[in-house]
Amino acid sequence: MTAQPETAPAARHDPRPRSAVSTGVGLAGLAGLAGWTAVARAYGMQGPLAALTALFACGVPMVLWSLLVDKVHRNPSTGIDWARAPRALKESLDVSLVKIAGLWGIWGVIGALYCIARWYWDGAYLFAMQVIGVAAIPMALLSIPYVIWLDRRLAEPKDGAWHFGQLLIGRVDLVDRQELHDFFRAWAVKGFFLAFMISIVPGNWQQAVAAESGWIAANPVNLAHWLISAMFMIDVTFATVGYVLTLKPLDAHIRSANPYAAGWTAALICYPPFIMMNSGGPLDYHMGTAGSDGWTHWLAAYPLATALMGLWLVFLTAVYAWATVAFGLRFSNLTHRGILTHGPYAWTKHPAYVSKNLYWWFAVLPFLAVSGNPVDMIRNTVVLGLVSGVYYWRARTEERHLMADPAYRDYAEWMARNGPIPRLISRLRPRRAPPAPVAAE
Question: How far apart are CA 187 and CA 106, in angstroms?
Fold first, then answer.
């Protein structure tokens, strides 16, 4: 009898770990934002109030999708126990009042810091302070029924706000220092980044809405500039909504904020007032270049190359915006709010950092200088390399923080096996030769 060939083993099934956010929630927000942007462009609504309305146009569809379709309020990670009847009000009211004191207390601290740090009262930050000032009283009033309602349903209502409230009323012996530190870090993230995001919302909105259709269609460079502006507007809008809606019923609360000083340092030097990449800063890589749009200068004599470069830059910016849209309601620096594995996060663990840094290299072309000075060329190339190094540092510190979650470890291991970019990088690395066998004596 002729031997039959062995059947090839079945391909190994290695599914991607489940993402904490569905694709639908981001698409819902994008649809709402696109609709409002179309209306605003049609009627010339370029101002800051229209920009704030864009936050609602983006956020409301995401909230509805999250609750009605994804039913995120039922997720165990919310901490809400839907299986049992709510506590009697008299059982939870004392806890709620202490938590409200803690919330109002931390808001007061953040408000005081805004007053002390005077950069918050100049330039674009002035708009953010006006918005926060108007919203302060309604938010304080709404926090009362919200906290009371939530505490009747939470499995463990005594969170960081409760511990800070206990500290404020003098019950120091009841305070858990770790809970307090986690609470402070989370609100430091929200206080610092929310003000910044609100401050840049009007500018990004105006750039996307004010451009006239005739100017956009005039040439490929104008089209690329407008599309890039639109992508940045999408990114800023989604990110701002994410910082606002850190709510447990939406499962969008902050699980933890990065506890490592290196993580905070790497992140803060990328944002004002600590930013090091601004004009004249130690990591300014524009000295003697043609500026942030160097590609239009150096490729001006080559229309096809200019159009192709514009297309490439639009693609990179689209990936950057997509990485933010994928977060849905949960975007935030320096925090863990659920592990994403879908969209561009199926390609690499850090799609925003990869696309952003590639954009800078191709848009500025730092190795070319209009000054003709080779020192400028060398310096700019080295400094932009250092900037990319900062983002690599940020990525590493973020991973160190997230590795505490088994879900992220599973995702990182899957990415190492299947991610296109990690696999490409591993192939490009030189392989070490196996150790030579030791001869027997």
Answer: 8
| Spatial distance between the Cα atoms of 329 and 238, rounded to a whole number of angstroms | 7
Looking at the structure of the chain, the number of domains it has is 3
Q: For every one of its 441 residues, what pLDDT tens digit does the chain have, with 9 covering 90 and above? A: 344 444 444 336 899 999 999 999 999 999 999 999 999 999 999 999 999 999 999 999 999 999 999 999 999 999 999 999 999 999 999 999 999 999 999 999 999 999 999 999 999 999 999 999 999 999 999 999 999 999 999 999 999 999 999 999 999 999 999 999 999 999 999 999 999 999 999 999 999 999 999 999 999 999 999 999 999 999 999 999 999 999 999 999 999 999 999 999 999 999 999 999 999 999 999 999 999 999 999 999 999 999 999 999 999 999 999 999 999 999 999 999 999 999 999 999 999 999 999 999 999 999 999 999 999 999 999 999 999 999 999 999 999 999 999 999 999 999 999 988 877 777 777 666 555 554 443
Spatial contact of 325 and 29, defined as CB atoms under 8 Å apart: yes
User: Residue 369: is it exposed, middle or buried by C-beta count within 10 angstroms (0-12/13-18/19+)?
Assistant: buried
- Is there a single domain that holds both residue 336 and residue 242? yes
Distance CA 102, CA 179 (A): 12
CA distances from 245 to 58, 154, 190, 337, 359 (A): 12, 18, 10, 11, 29
Best CA proximity match to 327, nearest among 7, 33, 19: 19
Could you tell me which of 101, 402, 75 has the C-alpha nearest to residue 247? 75
Q: What angle do CA 332, 336, 342 make, to 5 degrees?
A: 80
| Residue 294 identity (one-letter amino acid) | G
Of the candidates 380, 357, 376, 198, the one whose C-alpha atom is nearest the C-alpha of residue 270 is 357
Contact 327, 27 (CB under 8 A): no
- What's the one-letter identity of residue 150? L
Give the separation between CA 184 and CA 106, rounded to whole angstroms: 8
Q: Cβ(388)–Cβ(353) under 8 Å?
A: no
Rg (CA), the chain: 25
Q: Is residue 352 part of a domain?
A: yes
Q: How many CB atoms lie within 10 A of CB 107?
A: 17
CA angle 155, 157, 158 (to 5 degrees): 130
d(CA 249, CA 67): 9
Are 62 and 113 in a shared domain? no
| Residue type at position 89 | L
Nearest alpha-carbon partner for 80 in 248, 247, 246 = 248
Residue 308 lies in a domain: yes
Residue ranges making up the domain that contains 107: 73-208
